[in-house]
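Troubleshooting log. The previous run stalled partway through. Resubmitting the same two chains, unchanged.
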Amino acid sequence: MAGLCNADVHRASAESSREIRLRIDGISTFYGEAQALKDVSLRVHPREIVAILGSNGAGKSTLLKTVAGLLSPQKGKIVLDGEPIEGRPAHEVIRKGIACVPEGRELFGSLTVRENLELGTYSLPKSMRKKVQSERLEMIFSLFAVLKRRLKQKAETLSGGEQQMLAMGRALMADPKLLATDEPSLGLAPMLVAEMMSTLRHICDEWGVSLLLVEQNARAALKIADYVYVLERGKVVLEGTREEVIASPTIQAAYMGG
Amino acid sequence: MTLLSETVQYAISGITAGSIYAVIGICWSVVYLITKVLNFTTGEFVMLGGMLTWAFHTMGFGLPSSVLFAVACTIAISMLLERLVIRPIRFPTEMTYMMLTIASASVIKGLVLLQWGSESRRIEPFFGSGVIHFFGAGVTPQVLCVVAIMTLITLGLHLFLNHTLFGTALRASAINQTGAKLMGIDIGRFRLFCFGLAGGLGAVTGIVTAPITFTGYEIGLLTGLKGLVAAIAGGWSMTGTVAAALALGLLEGFGAGFVSSGLKDVLALIVMILFLILQTISFPGLRRR
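Second attempt completed without errors. Output:
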């Protein structure tokens, strides 16, 4: 009994001393009158993939836009590496180290693939851009080889899957600490979904980028996530490690098809 | 005058006018594509450039410093306009923006009238008043200077927009503002920059043309409109605007020369009406989702 207690205490202290990359405390976000997020809290640790699951309209994309600074929370705190960033506009949030691949990807359709990628370095200090650019481009081509062949093509001429890769690559050009991505599996063929998921795992493990992953495709997300939050109507209704969530009957029934 | 020399003469004045309309058209589209403001003060910047240079010059400043002060003042006025008139609007529509700039143009025009009266003003030519002969046609050094400066501005802008990260970022902001914000682009600062750029380029245009065409408080509207015609006819792209501006200038030059000089201003406006009917007034901002 005493031993178990000790183990628990030990785990708790390890947990608290472990640094937290992103901490969200009780944020509420409104669209006009409608409340899209209700008192949502979550944590992302370094080198961790945190998945946000939920059905359409659960508030997943709103959460991501709030983290990225495209929306401002009415109340609550967002802290990145100890620094509060809630309410800051998107163009400052990226400078703090959060890159975002939003819903709809928001590429620059009539610019070339190369120009889209180059703009990914815009948030970096001028002195670093050139160096980061050539290094990062190679790293990104190693993940998404197809982009290298498409460099001179306009972004709008790419297929859906290629656009998804470009959006991801463009966000990674900014050398972020945390990548927040909305439905990376959307529009991808089933085989490519698995590939995209293992790429995300690679980015997290090898590049040291934490991931906040919003997904409707729970099955795919649960393959790679370390920790999972389930949103329903703007609230966190379930959270836990991947194993805990997979074992949960609610998840089995609602998202995994029984 | 032979037919050849006449044709060359009209072509020269057409190209001169066209190069001016091109720069003014670019001023309209740079502002419109990034801020969605159809900026009717564009022509007033041209007027201010000429009038302020004249004013500083008559106050006793040398021509180069008068030019510098005039350009700086016009840039400042343009940026103030963005900060004090455009930005504070809480629920902007393209229509409110347009009405605001039309009103601001009237205010600027009125203040200039009040301060310096309604007479036409002239700045002395930068390189004397000799005439260079060319296929029987005459060209003043000032005309060459106008064409050269307008060409340099256009090429410079082209290089800037296509071959620098800042220029690419500007184009990106015109395409997708959410995407631009996520890349770290501060749209507010870009809007201010675009107004400043339009003010500066407009002023330079007004200054270099003042020795040829005279300037005065009322020249802004028509000059500005011709740039707008070029931007609309050119589909708001840079290449399109330059091509349309040159075509418009040549049309005016030949129309005025071979038919009647009274046609000059009418032609531009007829072109504008035709294009607006053809496009059923579709501006790029309205076409996008």
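Takeaways: Chain B has one domain: 3-287. The radius of gyration of chain B is 19 Å.
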